[in-house]
UniProtKB/TrEMBL annotation:
<keyword id="KW-0460">Magnesium</keyword>
<feature type="domain" description="EngB-type G">
    <location>
        <begin position="22"/>
        <end position="202"/>
    </location>
</feature>
<protein>
    <recommendedName>
        <fullName>Probable GTP-binding protein EngB</fullName>
    </recommendedName>
</protein>
<dbReference type="InterPro" id="IPR019987">
    <property type="entry name" value="GTP-bd_ribosome_bio_YsxC"/>
</dbReference>
<dbReference type="GO" id="GO:0000917">
    <property type="term" value="P:division septum assembly"/>
</dbReference>
<keyword id="KW-0717">Septation</keyword>
<keyword id="KW-0132">Cell division</keyword>
<comment type="similarity">
    <text>Belongs to the TRAFAC class TrmE-Era-EngA-EngB-Septin-like GTPase superfamily. EngB GTPase family.</text>
</comment>
<keyword id="KW-0342">GTP-binding</keyword>
<dbReference type="InterPro" id="IPR030393">
    <property type="entry name" value="G_ENGB_dom"/>
</dbReference>
<dbReference type="GO" id="GO:0005829">
    <property type="term" value="C:cytosol"/>
</dbReference>
<dbReference type="InterPro" id="IPR027417">
    <property type="entry name" value="P-loop_NTPase"/>
</dbReference>
<dbReference type="InterPro" id="IPR006073">
    <property type="entry name" value="GTP-bd"/>
</dbReference>
<comment type="function">
    <text>Necessary for normal cell division and for the maintenance of normal septation.</text>
</comment>
<dbReference type="GO" id="GO:0005525">
    <property type="term" value="F:GTP binding"/>
</dbReference>
<dbReference type="Pfam" id="PF01926">
    <property type="entry name" value="MMR_HSR1"/>
</dbReference>
<keyword id="KW-0547">Nucleotide-binding</keyword>
Length: 202
């Protein structure tokens, strides 16, 4: 599938260092430790793709992955964009502001951004920091796919309950879809892959 062809393209520390907007982009955002890297790795079927983003010094960067055309690999059909995780307690205030500028700026202004995958740990639900993130998304009218990660930690009934609670919290988002997801148990994997591919190539 398209996502399995993902390859690392570039890392940028600032918005003006990103490649100029081109093919459709889907970005991934979420609290640190929500399971973002694991989700990107399992969705692309590449065990280490997103962990490059976690090496020291790279966690604050925007990492972009190309999704090349099958027949013409020089042509990119779309991009996956791994945005820095938020919520590291150790980050200095100045740094945090820069982070908010980068993240908020990207989410508000990137013209090629067709969808946002928001990762939420199913056990934690929507946190204050998630709400700040959502404040960037609502005015921009971005479509959001909320993945309720680590769904393997909950039995089915509790999963549905958590999904209902998250939907209620995120009701300000005009176009919202939620999927209970687990990288370890591959819950929701196929549905998520199809959803993202449909954003990129409807
Ligand atoms: P990130 O900081 O958002 O990129 O999160 P990671 O992908 O590095 O995952 C954070 C921690 O959660 C790691 O210890 C993972 O092994 C664990 N984790 C990630 N996804 C899952 C999942 O689907 N199920 C379970 N049980 N643990 C997970």
């Amino acid at each position: 599938s398209l996502l399995h062809r993902a390859t690392f393209l570039t890392s940028s520390a600032r918005l003006d260092q990103l490649p100029p907007p081109g093919a459709p982009e889907v970005c991934f955002v979420g609290r640190s430790n929500a399971g973002k890297s694991s989700a990107i790795n399992v969705l692309t079927q590449q065990r280490r793709l997103a962990f490059a983003s976690k090496t020291p010094g790279r966690t604050r960067l925007i990492n972009m992955f190309s999704l090349p055309d099958k027949l013409d690999p020089d042509q990119d059909i779309g991009y996956l964009v791994d945005l820095p995780g938020y919520g590291y307690a150790s980050v200095a205030r100045d740094d945090r502001n820069t982070w908010a500028d980068v993240l908020g700026g990207y989410l508000r202004t990137r013209p090629s951004l067709v969808g946002v995958v928001l990762l939420i740990d199913i056990r934690r639900g929507v946190t204050d920091l998630d709400r700040r993130m959502i404040d960037f998304l609502v005015p921009a009218g971005r479509p959001v796919l909320a993945l309720l990660t680590k769904a393997d930690k909950f039995p089915y009934g509790q999963r549905i309950k958590a999904q209902f609670a998250v939907r209620k919290e995120l009701e300000a988002i005009a176009s919202l879809h939620t999927i209970p997801f687990s990288s370890t148990d591959r819950i929701g994997l196929e549905e998520t892959g199809e959803y993202i591919e449909n954003w990129i190539s409807p």
